[in-house]
Design goal:
By secondary structure, this protein is mainly α. The chain contains 14 helices and no strands. It starts with a helix and ends with a helix.
């Protein structure tokens, strides 16, 4: 048994380039897993700089020098942040406060509606089932209230954290953009020179992620805008807040669209009850999700992140369990990385097998 395992190890893990790639992946995982919270401002700055670098490269293709291109992109980024803080964030905060104030009334209305189902359809819905459901939701709402209270008591510390992010993250974003080549050369100076497999994996991941992120940004904006227009036409309460979360839900495939049915249903029922407008709201949301999955995603993300849906759901569960909400957002990029590593490993093994067969003399 030991001999079989040793032969398998020597056949698949004797390549130095594969060992280098594995070492880099393990070190990156360990750093993020154990030091992710401490390095969160730097990681956020790296992600933002990676997103903005595509714009800077686009300006470079029209003959704008690197430094002026970085300044233009950075000014666009700062302007977007200011618009978010001055205009959008207060509106969303106001709607969140109103929603929290109405939450107890909404839960009572939902309870009455569910109890009414036991009268209309006693063969499908029983009072015991409703009580079990409410018994599950009750503690969750209590935890939500406690978390809000804790957040309000720690608001001073939270304000300090926000101020640190508002100062440090834009500053690091600027330097990551301006000194990109210098930082990359400094980092690669510590790596072995023979790292062709790692470079191959990074080239594929970089291409996939660039297309994926660009497509996802457009998908979020289109779904958000379409949801906001539709909910506003229906005169639905909290249209801006709900449409924002509907747009962000596309970051978590399959799961996000399903989860968002609950707040849309609850808000629509509280506002209209079991009426035509309630059905229209659910129908509009269903149509938006249908068009997103069958039109937008194939159009914006065709031939991008060619990962099976089961693998995507597994990545969402795994990385969401490890890193929470952040893990949910980065589940698909991390799944892409793993997929690219497996593909590169397979090509490497196939190439080695072909070389060994070609070097074997014929009998």
């Amino acid at each position: 048994m030991i001999k079989i395992f040793r032969e398998w190890r020597d056949r698949h893990f004797s390549d130095p380039q594969l060992m280098i790639l594995g070492f880099l992946l393990v070190v990156g995982f360990v750093l993020i897993f154990f030091l992710g919270r401490i390095l969160m401002p730097m990681l956020a700055a790296i992600v933002i700089a990676y997103l903005l670098d595509g714009m800077a490269q686009g300006l470079g293709r029209i003959k704008i020098p690197r430094y002026p291109a970085v300044l233009i992109v950075f000014l666009i980024f700062i302007t977007s942040v200011l618009v978010l803080l001055i205009w959008l964030l207060p509106l969303i905060s106001r709607q969140i406060a109103q929603l929290l104030q109405l939450m107890p009334s909404m839960i009572v209305a939902a309870k009455k509606g569910l109890m009414g189902l036991t009268v209309r359809y006693p063969e499908f819905v029983t009072e015991a089932q409703i009580n079990r459901l409410l018994g599950f939701i009750g503690p969750e709402l209590s935890n939500l209230g406690q978390n809000l209270l804790t957040w309000s008591l720690a608001s001073v510390r939270g304000l300090i954290t926000v101020l640190v992010y508002l100062v440090l993250v834009p500053l690091m974003v600027f330097f990551f953009l301006k000194d990109k080549e210098l930082i990359i050369n400094w980092f690669t100076g510590f790596l072995p020179r023979d790292r062709g497999l790692a470079n191959e994996v990074w080239a594929e991941v970089n291409h996939q992620l660039a297309n994926y992120i660009r497509g996802k940004i457009w998908e979020i904006l289109i779904v958000w805008s379409a949801s906001y227009v539709a909910f506003t036409i229906l005169e639905m309460q909290f249209a801006l807040l709900v449409s924002l979360f509907v747009g962000l839900s596309v970051l978590v495939p399959y799961v996000g669209a399903t989860v968002m049915y609950l707040p849309v249903t609850l808000i629509a029922y509280f506002q209209w009850g079991w009426g035509a407008d309630f059905l229209y709201a659910l129908l509009v949301y269903s149509v938006i999700q249908f068009l997103d999955g069958n039109l937008l995603v194939p159009l914006l993300l065709s031939e991008v992140v060619n990962v099976h849906p089961v693998a995507i759901i597994a990545a969402v569960l795994l990385f969401g369990g490890l890193w929470g909400v952040v893990g949910l957002f980065f589940a698909i990029p991390l799944a892409t990385l793993i997929h690219s590593v497996i593909k590169a490993w397979g090509r490497q093994q196939a190439g080695q097998q072909e070389n060994s067969e070609s070097s074997t003399p014929p009998e």
